[in-house]
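Dear support,

I submitted the protein below through the web form. The confirmation email said the job was done, but the results page showed an empty box. After a refresh the structure appeared. I'm attaching both so you can tell me whether what I see now is the final result or a partial one.
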Amino acid sequence: MTEELALALLRKRRQEGLEYFIETYTPYVSAVVRNILGTQLPWQDVEEVVSDVFVALWRNADKPEPGKVKGYLGKTARNKAINRLRGHGLELAVEEDILAVPTPGPEETLTQTERARLLCDAVQSMDWPDREIFVRYYYYGEPAVSIAKALKMSPAGLRQRLKRGRDRLRETLMKGDMFDGV
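What the results page shows now:
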């Protein structure tokens, strides 16, 4: 079954569509949730959040666009995991750092937005598996060992791809003078 067919079945409230996404993306969703919850909460919470992600997919079957279900599931997993932490009175350490940063002005915000767009475009232009590695490692925070295993690569080979990819991104982004000293 293809993702497009599974999405069409899901939108028609056919269980086979949901089963496809559960079978295909449970390891990925679990990794995103585990990386956020870490050891702060027991494994039962990880399982519940993963289940909640697929329930959200079922309830919001019209939201994900064809070809973008993985991204939708990743964002949903991240948000639900953060909400679970907050529900237990816990926070991500990164969020504490964000609170200490002064609010940027309009010009700085525009520059940051442009930089983010350029970075996104540069990552999207990467070939597979480099794009997959970058998104999983930098956006979802998945450990290199886990990504290497999922992509049937050696961890050393994956780290080498990350390094080469960073070098290519730096070179691409420096051409536009948007990332001084990246």
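Response: this is the final, complete result; the empty box was a page-load delay. Residues 94-101 have pLDDT under 50 and may be disordered.
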